[in-house]
Amino acid sequence: MSKATRSKATGSKATRGNATRRDRNASPAPYLVAALLAAIAGFGTVYVSFGPAGNGGLPLSAGSPAANDAGVPAQGGAQESPLAGLNKGPMAAFLVRAKPQEVPEITIAGADGATRPLSDWRGRVVLLNIWATWCSPCREEMPTLDKLQAALGGNDFEVVAVNIDKGGDAKAKAFLAEIGVAHLALYTDPTAKLFAALKAIGMPMTLLIDRQGREIGRLVGPADWDSDEAVALIKAAIAAPSAKPQTGAATTRVPARPSL
């Protein structure tokens, strides 16, 4: 092989290597944008951590002025997101999925220790929140989630706040009692895999899940979940038309909310 040929081949490999590194390094960008938007919106501290690279990007529509005005554009004739244009004000950091995405099957535990898969909530809109007692922003956010659950919780909607503290749920129970949370059920992550499964990079983090169990948006960082804008966002998700069930498909029982 001539020197010129070897040089060209080496250059080609280097180019591919650089492209691969760029792709791998770029994958967390949407999450960093989410955290940045949370900070810009005045939500204060966001606890950020980085998981393994290569998780892939999220096709999200950020709460930028352009996105807020136009909403999430329908592409290829697809139906526009029911949340289009609602990520504004206190919800400016909420990132709307351009297309609903399946949520990995995860298992959480109730206050009684019984475990259940997230799919048990299909048929109900879910606001899935990840929190911990050592997360300072969570202390400010949890009461707003409690008020949201009190206002809208029922057969159509539930705030599912999952604590990821290690060493049992005693600390979490004491924390909720201390901050006056009365309407949120206590859920924990016995597998310690929830954070990674949902590709989270910071806390608190909240996913909005539709009746079919698909993620339709997320917010990294704390938010005022009992604000008028948040309530409007959740009501839009509740009112969104559900996909028609497949013929002969089994119906899923919506679980009763356990007590604290």
Write the layout of secondary structure elements.
Layout: H1 3-26, H2 29-40, E1 47-48, E2 60-61, H3 65-70, E3 95-102, E4 107-109, E5 115-117, E6 125-131, H4 136-152, E7 157-163, H5 170-178, E8 187-188, H6 194-197, E9 202-203, E10 205-209, E11 214-220, H7 228-239
Parallel strand pairs: 6-7, 7-8
Antiparallel strand pairs: 1-9, 2-3, 3-11, 4-5, 6-10, 10-11
Number of strands: 11
The CATH superfamily label reads Glutaredoxin
- Give the mean pLDDT: 75
Largest sheet descriptor: 7 strands, mixed
**CATH topology (fold) name:** Glutaredoxin
* Derived structural class: alpha+beta
The CATH architecture assignment turns out to be 3-Layer(aba) Sandwich
- The spatial strand order of the largest sheet comes to 2-3-11-10-6-7-8
What attributes characterize this protein structure?
260 residues, alpha+beta, Glutaredoxin, two-stranded antiparallel ribbon, seven-stranded mixed sheet, globular, single chain
